[in-house]
Amino acid sequence: MAEETKFWPKTISRRKFLALSAAAAGGAAALLTMPLGKRAGANANAATGDDGVKIVPTSGAHNCGGRCIVKAHVKDGVIVRITTDDAPDTEDLPQLRACLRCRSYRNRLYHPDRLKYPMKRVGKRGEGKFERISWDEALTIIAEHIKRVMQEYGPEAIYIHYASGNAGKTAERVWMQRLLGLYGGYLNYYGTYSTAQTQMATPYTYGTISTGNSREDWVNSKLIILWGWNPAETIHGTNTIYYLRRAKDAGAKIIVIDPRYTDTAINLADEWIPIRPTTDNALMDAMAYVMITENLHDQAFLDKYCLGFDEEHMPPGIPPGNSYKSYVLGLGEDKTPKTPEWAEAITGVPKEKIIQLAREYATMKPAALIQGWGPQRQAYGEQFVRGGTVLAAMTGNVGISGGWASGAGYQARGQKVGSIPVNNPCKASISCFIWPDAIKRGKGMGAKDGVQGVEQLSANIKIIFNLAGNTLINQHSDCNGTAKLLQDESLVELIVVSEHFMTPSAKFADVLLPADNPMERDDIVTPWGFGDYVLFINKAVDTVFECRNGYDWISDLAEKLGIREQFTEGKTLEDWLRYIVDATRKNHPEFPTYEEFKQKGYYRWQYPEPAIAFKEQIEDPDNNPFPTPSGKIEIFSERLWKMNNPEEIPAVPKYIPSWEGPQDPLREKYPLQCITPHYRRRSHSTFDNVPWLEEAAPQVVWINPIDAEVRGIKDGDKVKVFNDRGAMIICAKVTPRIMPGVVSVPQGAWWTPDADGIDQRGCANVITKYHPSPLAFGNPQHTNLVEVVKA
Question: If pLDDT is split at 50, 70 and 90, which confidence band does 41 have?
């Protein structure tokens, strides 16, 4: 027993942690909005330790979008304290400060429920019954299955599942891709659960997804519209709230459009406009109607840079009435003018507010309409993405300082950080969201099913590697339906899971492997693609029990497959980290040496001025066309027109009523729209089992007082949220911070069904529907009708 517990020290007092969480409840950490003088001293003692304490610079590897400096204070081989960035704090280089998630890392590292040994399933798949085995036995089982399946079905039967729990440059997923790529290949995926619709739809307008200016340019905006974006909780890049605060202090008006009065709105908004989920394009269309009828749009910009806004600028051969302007004015097939009155009935936004919003966005130039990723995670989210690009073009806010072309992705500046070499000879790829279809009917699926790279798949999925991810069950739509699919052992023949804890997804493993923690390994990590820095994750403490690093055990698996030397190239993990740094230095000679980078723990690029997306295209269009077929901003897409599916994939962005939206007849049975936003206590499902974070931000369903009163629900009551797909028991938060007719269950809580299959922890995906969006085959997670009753 002593061996089992000696690495799990007593937890420190939670008083200060909860005090920080209370400050953060109004937005991203309150420290981010302190005056610079106070912030500079807020962590003055971070580098000072007690006698015998070693301070190790490191970082987190979970997928929150930001990447922060974490300093582990280590004494006698145990992390006794976590602090964060204490470098000079300036306006141009604000500290990379850790939020509550990284500050709680000790609680996660030393959690008593950490997996300790390799195990194999002994009960039915999904029951969570396992027995301990050796690493050799575990790897033998895996190797034998790979050999058999590769020979019998080919590489398209082996799938490395979408996972984001380890975002390091040397994550298990990367090593498995390298291994299988050397052994014959594997079924690949495209897109993400977060951004599938944005990634697919934006290039149809601009030819690329790099469409936003860099964040420091926000200070030059007169108006910023945050449409379905809540960076105070989603942490869409470290210090995002800081840059928005700078813009506000410089005089920018900030408007938040969201069904909820979010923490971002509390911190920053001059105005909150609530809107019914899935109806965003109706509001966009009505704004366009106001701009056109009041002659507020930038016709000169549209004439010069755009294709398809009006009938005078359409591709040849397209019948009249198919331009965006014709659609908005009701001159197209539907004969319905998209007036503010029309949109009010759909969106719940008063017509007067629509007119005001349209006028402000058209006249307060430069203006940045920044779209969050939440509204594109709905039935027809591709339309939301393209609708925002049209408004940006109509107002001439593309390619200028203080403007914004579309989306919530910041402009990449060309940093090329090295990566582990991976080559997959298998060209078949599916949308990351449609893997259940590839299990049931993969053989024969083709382009109409979202398959890319080959005409048809040659096999169903037979092996799944789920490495550092909880999307196998928890983060995928319809937990109950997905569980039934995976329980059928005649379909998927082997599921391998590498994890820290017995997550809902881990319970479905056939072979379950205990992973090391970021605090127990060296690695390199970057923020999401737009970041201007790189962090070195220094190993702070030794790995415990039989937990192993991914490179370690996958190298042993490579040996059982007869390709160890080919896989490792004779390199240690440190050799590969040096390889990444050397590759980065080839692209960026100013990047530090491996030793310098490891010692300091981070490197930050600095730039003399903000990056402006499409600046070259706007200033010199003859020599810098947009990377589209026409070389212009394609408001009308001939590529989409040729798909010949105008009801779901129109050539110009349109409002399409969603299934399980406010106009669905199913509302008679399930009258409330349910959204599933991100939550400050978790990064997706990571940290859900950390008690301090649960205490700081409990899992609750938000419900408006009007909806609560008619159901006899009071604040704090246990309620049942349900539809035909499933049900959960959760506490109610009765609050005017959410509009009537809408409820909100934060995504990421671990699926915990009781004997009757009713979830007891508030897992949002018991009520979401597996129904891929039509163009991206993406995740429609915010498209749900439910009822709520007192439990």
Answer: very low
Residue 49 has pLDDT above 60, yes or no: no
Class of residue 740 by CB neighbours under 10 A (exposed 0-12, middle 13-18, buried 19+): middle
Residue 80 and residue 102: Cα distance in Å, rounded? 14
Helices 550-560 and 135-152 pack at an angle, to 10 degrees, of 60
Cβ atoms of residues 108 and 517 within 8 Å: yes
Q: 27-41, 48-62, 574-588: which has the highest mean pLDDT?
A: 574-588
- Residue spans per domain, the chain: 2-109, 119-194+421-521+547-604, 207-411+612-641, 665-790
- From the candidate CATH numbers 3.40.605.10, 2.30.30.30, 2.40.40.20, 3.40.50.280, the one assigned to the domain spanning 665-790: 2.40.40.20
Mean pLDDT of 120-126: 96
Tokens of 600: 């300091």
729 Cβ neighbours under 8 A, 6+ residues apart: 718, 719, 720, 758, 759, 760, 762, 791
Task: Please state, for a pLDDT cut of 70, what percent of the chain lies above it.
Answer: 93
Contact 224, 218 (CB under 8 A): yes
Determine the Cα–Cα distance for residues 679 and 699; give it in Å rounded to an integer. 9
Separation of alpha carbons 176 and 360, rounded Å: 51
Supply angle C-alpha 460, 462, 464, rounded to 5.
120
Alpha-carbon separation of residue 407 from 211, 229, 354, 507, 635 (angstroms): 7, 10, 21, 36, 15
Tokens of 725: 């797909």
Cα-Cα end-to-end distance for the chain = 41
Residue 61 has pLDDT above 90, yes or no: no
Q: What is the pLDDT of residue 548?
A: 97
Q: What is the mean pLDDT of residues 401-405?
A: 96
Residue type, 337: P
Interval 100-113: pLDDT, tens: 888 888 999 999 99
How far is CA 646 from each of CA 334, 395, 598, rounded to the nearest angstrom? Answer: 12, 26, 54
Q: What is the pLDDT of residue 244?
A: 96
- Nearest CA-CA partner of 401 in 613, 584, 552: 613
- Which option is the CATH number for 119-194+421-521+547-604: 3.30.450.20, 3.40.50.740, 3.50.50.60, 3.90.650.10? 3.40.50.740
Q: How confident is the model at residue 525 (pLDDT cuts 50, 70, 90)?
A: very high
* Residue 431 in this model has a pLDDT that exceeds 70: yes
